Structures are given as C-alpha cells and as structure tokens.
Amino acid sequence: MARQDRSTGEPGRVPLLEVRDVTKSFGAVAAVAGVSFPLYAGETHALVGENGAGKSTIVKMLAGVHRPDAGTLLLDGEPVTFASPADAKAAGIAVIYQEPTLFPDLSVAENIVMGRHPRRAFGRIAHPAVQAEARRLFARLGVRIDPARPARGLSIADQQIVEIAKALSADARVLIMDEPTAALSLVEVERLFSVVRTLRDEGAAIMFISHRFEEITELCGRVTILRDGRQVSTDPAGDLTVDDMVRRMVGRDLDALFPKQDVEPGAVVLEVENLSRAGVFRDISFSVRAGEIVAFAGLVGSGRSEVVQAVFGVDERDTGTVRLNGKRIRPRSPRAAMAAGMALVPEDRRQQGLVMDLSIERNVTLPRSRALARLGLLSGAGERREARHWTERLRTRYRRLTDAVGTLSGGNQQKVVLAKWLATAPRVLIVDEPTRGIDVGTKAEVHRLMSELAAEGVAVVMVSSELPEVLGMADRVLVMREGRIVAELPRAEATEDSVMFAAMGQGAAA
To answer: Where is the ABC transporter domain (predicted)?
Structure first.
C-alpha cells in the first residue's frame, strides 16, 4: 500500500486554499471529523470516497453554505470565514455541483451571468453583452449551445456545460468540480479536461470529485481519500493504484464490480416495434426476454434516453407499438405502463425521479400509495415498513425515514429512486444511467441487485454512458447513433472497440 501522508502542505509552499482539522456535525451525526488537505495553485486535487463519506459537506463548507464546527479554512495562508455563498464567490471560489441548478425560464446566457449582468444607462441590462459573454465562453469550451434559448429542456450534458461556463465566467481562482463529467460523452469529457488543464496551467487550484478512477489518474496530481467522514490519506496520485483507492474508500477489497450471474433467458417480455419520433429517433425495434439485461450504448445525444422514455410513455412517439407480455401498452401513458408491470428509473433523479421536499419514506412508497392504503387512508406504519425494507436492502444511508429526501447525498438519492420502483415488483425494469454519480462500493451493490433481479426473471433495460458498466452487465448491447440502432452485439462480441466504432459511425456490423 502507498504511504499515507496526513500533512497539510509542503515546506516553503503556501496552499492557495487549505482545509485544516475541519469538523462538521448534523445533530448526533459527524459528517466530517478532523479533515485536513491543501489545494495548491496550478494543481488538480482529487477528493474521493463513497457516498456519505463527507465530500459534499466539505464542498458546502468551502462554498459558504455550511460553517465548520471546528477547524480552520485558510486562503493564501490566512484564516477565513465564509458567512454565505456570496462570501465564498467574492473570495474567488466557484463550485460546479453534481446536479445542475439553473433557472429554467431564463435564457442560457442569463443563467451564465446571473448576478453580474452587464448594464447600460439607467441600470438596463445590456443583452448584447450578455449574449457575447456566453458565446465567448462556449467558444472556449468548444461547444455549440444557443445563448438565447431557455434553459428549460436542456439535456443533462448541456446543463452541466452551462454550469461550467457560469463558473468560468466568474474568473475563480479556486474551482471545485463535483462529478462534472457524470453526464458527458467521451468527446465532451476530453474537451472539459482540456479546459481544466488550461485553468490549472494559468494558476487555478482545482478540487476534482469523481467516482471514475481513470479520470483521477489522468487529471489529478494529488488524492485525498475519505471514509465515514474521516480522512484516510492524502497522497500523490502517482503513488496510488486503483486497488489502493478502492480498498481505502470502502475498507475492504472489492472482489467484483460487475457481479453478473449467468441466466438462461426466458420468454420475450418486452417488444418494441418501429418506434419513431420526428427529429429524435426512428425505426427503433428490439425485444427483451425474462432474465435478460439489454443495454443501450452510444454517445450523449444519440437518442438513448428519449427512446426508453417513449417506451415508458413519458415522451410521445409518432409511430410504433410497445407490448408487454404480448399486450399492447397505450402510448403517452406512464400509468398504463406501470399497471402492466413496467418501471423507469430516470436519468435526472432530482427533476424526474424524486419529490425533493417529501420524506424518504413517502418517495419510496409513492407508486404504491393505493396498495398501501386501507379504506382510502394511507397507513403510516405500512408506509414506513415498506420504505425501511427497501432502503435497508439498498443499504441507504440516512438519519430518519421522515427526513426530506433532499437532505441525502446524491448517491443515496439514487438508491431511493431505485427503491421506489423496485417496490412495485416490476416485470420490466428500465434504468437510465443507474450508477451516475455513485461511488464504487455502491455501484457494485446496484450491479448485484440488477443481476439478482434478472436471475428472478425480471427483464432489464439499461442505458449507460459508462462502457465498463455496459460490457460488464449486459447480455446484449444495442448501440445507437443519431437516433437509430446501428449495431446489436451479443455479450461475447461486445468490446470497447466494437461499441465505440459503432457509436461513432466507424463501421461495426449490425
């Protein structure tokens, strides 16, 4: 194992921002206890750990959302206190959170310059200058997004790009990136990394949070590992292997990230024929058998999520039929899909999967409210019993089931979405980016659960941007490009090369 270095700095070198012996508790729960690490100018520093390890709490302290109960934050070697997010921003700290936080009814450009609008005489907003600033930033990022369009309706990938542009527009000296690549394609990730390297070379201090180890080893010079709110180690990235990081994060060896069981598929459960929607996808036909995991792969924007949402009835379709166990499902009716035995875990858990102000237990039991009711009244004890069963099965971390689901970490929110739909005992489970933003230990748990459900006869449809996940879990891979299925690959023939060649139009056999 690599050496453990709990020092907070290097001789003769002052960190741009330093966390020193910081502690933060919520009630009786210590979210962070005695954590110390430096952020140097011109360096990218990774902060890693399982969901619930304390990463988000540290981010919120640096962003001025929370104040430490003990310990010190230092900026340029001097103690500093952030009473609000505005204080942190004024100090040159910008945070790109894991979940986009845009104003949906404002334009993309207005979101980018929010709070810093260029103005004309008499205080009027200089809209041409706002548009020009957005275009300049998008050119720097190498992306094409219309600055004048409303933020509502943007894909997760485009929302993340707008968040990045917003942070860059503030000329921050410290850039904190919380899972910025979770919803980006490989091309977009490379483009982002190019921007990060430019900022680093210009002297910015960057804290990078990611569950993708290949990103950490490629981009970061130093790694701090947390477990259960405590600091395990801070080391140069070059001194750590992936096995070292996994072992320190979870406190044990991770035997299998993809525990795929061999299952003999049964009869066809889901049939999709000639599904089309003008300008989005066309001629989509596929089937899924009981006990089979079928994965949709492809670049962001290829139409994968739109297809599964149309199958479930969330989005409309122009043509095509969907059958479950031979019975046709009425289009544009999620209720009909649910009644037939279909469940959809959406990509955007905050906007589509959860009611953030409701309790954990209420979110878990929402689809089964009628089944749990007695004489028209919802049983609180029954609701709590059902929620406890599924949150425990998914090893969800929370204080009380009555807490708002919005108080949970991103990974635990994802577990609640999974629990919510698994409680309906579906015949067909559609999971869109099932492990986006989830730590390595939780990924293994989700994969194990998917494999167990398939072994029990559930037909699983998975959309994933992570090729290792696709290759590790799928019995068949359907590759999409520009709204069409361009290749169907059995497990034995699916490789990174074959999938990416097909996704990029380089000629894989259909």
So the answer is: 17-253, 263-507
